[in-house]
Amino acid sequence: MNTYRFFTSTLIGRIGILIFVWMVFAIGNPDYASMNNLYAMLEGFALVGLIAAGLAATMIVGELDLSVGSVAAVAGIIAVKTSHLGLVGCVALTVALAIVYGIVQGYIVGKTGINSLVFTIATLIGMRGVAYALAPTPVQMPLARLTMSDALMQRLWIFSPFSIITLIVLTAIGLVFAYTTWGRELYAFGGGRNEARAAGLSTMRPLILAFGISGGCAGLAGAMASLKSGAAAPFSFEALLLTGVTAALVGGISLYGGRGTMFGVGIGILTVQFLVSGFSSIGAPTYVGSLATGTLLLVVLLVEFLTDSPQVKEWRTRRAFAKRLAAAPA
Q1: What are the pLDDT digits (tens) for 67-105?
Q2: Which long-range contacts (CB under 8 A, 24 or more apart) does 155-164 make?
Q3: What share of the chain is helix, strand, coil (3-state, %, to 5)?
Q4: pLDDT given for residue 1 in this prediction
Q5: Confidence band for 31, pLDDT divided at 50, 70 and 90
Q6: Which CATH number goes with the domain that contains 105?
Q7: Which domain holds residue 23?
Q8: How many domains does the chain contain in total?
């Protein structure tokens, strides 16, 4: 059974990459380390962070929720349309609906055994259709309610309410994963389903919990971002999936399940934000930041394949067996 550890050798290496990226751009451009730029990067961290946290939960159990961008779009529209309930009321309603949606997804995946990639491609398309049905064109909050947007944009040093909420959510999920039975079940289930079943662990609860977290995080991200901007559109958040997956993988969440921490996810999000913001600060075209992020992701995936893939593990097992056989006395 895999255990949750806050600091591992690979995570320390990722922290080193984060510091290196920061230093490269901070030394070359003094404005990069300014309070204003830090605030802007943490605003990006807030949105991507919630999505990455939810995706990380599904990846830890060996699945992936591809519908998060569409869910965020639907959540944003619902939040804006129910803004008369007040900031807390509309966000609570939206997140509750998103959690229920995620739980249903997890239940269906667990009950049918269907591949989550195939299933959530369908829900990605379906939820985007729901977004267009709810709001064929962008919707805006009434002027009288734009005080909600002002509240969410309030600056507290380098933080905003949005980024603070994201940090709280990441911390809460990390603590659940580290110190609760349900959290440990996620790692056990993702690290070896057959072993988890043999140990008598639930085969439904980890999936329901992971997809519930993913749905809730996507709903919170869409609601907060849309209320902050004062508007929502059915085509919003289409690129969030790729950015969130990249941040989770760079932060050490394993493609093969059963490994990774929310602390690592936070490091991955900051690394991506520092990289993109760094190239933007020196006036590089947008595609340069995308190329750099893609290159970093490819390196991370290559390292993970060489160290943690089932194929490499099987090759190492066979090699070790062959050595023992060769060393055995005739």
Answers
A1: 999 999 999 999 999 999 999 999 999 999 999 999 999
A2: 155/39, 157/35, 158/35, 158/38, 158/39, 158/42, 159/39, 159/42, 160/39, 160/42, 160/43, 160/46, 162/43, 162/46, 162/47, 162/224, 162/225, 162/228, 163/42, 163/43, 163/45, 163/46
A3: 75, 0, 20
A4: 42
A5: confident
A6: 1.10.3470
A7: 9-285
A8: 1
